[in-house]
Amino acid sequence: MQQISLTVLLSLLLVSGGAPVAMENLTIAHCLQGCPTGTAASNEIVVRHLYAVSINQQTRMADWVSYRILPQSIGVASLLPRRWNNDQLAQNSVRVEELGTGAATDTLQQPVLGNQPESVYRITEFTVQAGDQGRLVPMTSFAGTGYWNDLNLVSVMSLMRSDLRLGAWSRLDQAVNALVRSDGELFVIAGPVYQFDGTLPEAGSSSTPTAFFKVVANQAGAVAAFLFDQDLPIHASFCAQHTELDTVAEAAGLALFPAATEWPLSGLGDRLGC
Predict the structure, then answer these.
(1) Where are the alpha helices (DSSP H) in the chain?
(2) What's the whole-number mean pLDDT along residues 94-123?
(3) Closest to 177 (Cα-Cα) out of 148, 227, 139
């Protein structure tokens, strides 16, 4: 059984009057047709206002994050502060510490250098520059809510190179927001790919992802799946990364809509400009 944050369990007990809750029947509103399956049983599921995330015990980072975008949740994020914070609900996620205040092993170190809000990060035995990290959930999709600061939690941090983060990945986020404004709510699943057979790197090796995936879907069963190589140049088109849902599922090692049958029912790529 996967571990779910204590806050969620307490809420379930209150709703059920203290009676035992069957975890396999748990429904999470951030996930369309069920949350992804296929991760290790030791993964920790953390559910917050804006997203649900599965944290891998080995990499201590997200295997997947699922979220639901509404027209009213979208906003301008350019002036929102961006500084990583610990996720207090997550027991296995990487942690943020001031440089020099703790051991480098198994910590995410975030020094304060002058007026720079983000500088150098160290995870296990490798260093990640601030430009090579990003959020698996875009702030612009939730800047219109009061919970946008949840996106500063390290539980949604990814080791994504800046050319990808600022290029094709960001342009897809913009296209998704535009489609939500015109058509209504959309559900998104995003996460890293380490090996294209869905396996993780060996323990102790670098856990920098090889690629990232993003899958967009609506309630009617229309789906658009994208697979982004980590080394994509900044000018790359997100539409060129459009692929089949089965291709993404195999690369990530996940069943992405486990409660659905015969999905996708139609394609969503053309509505995203592809």
Answers:
(1) 6-15, 162-166, 168-183, 245-252
(2) 40
(3) 139
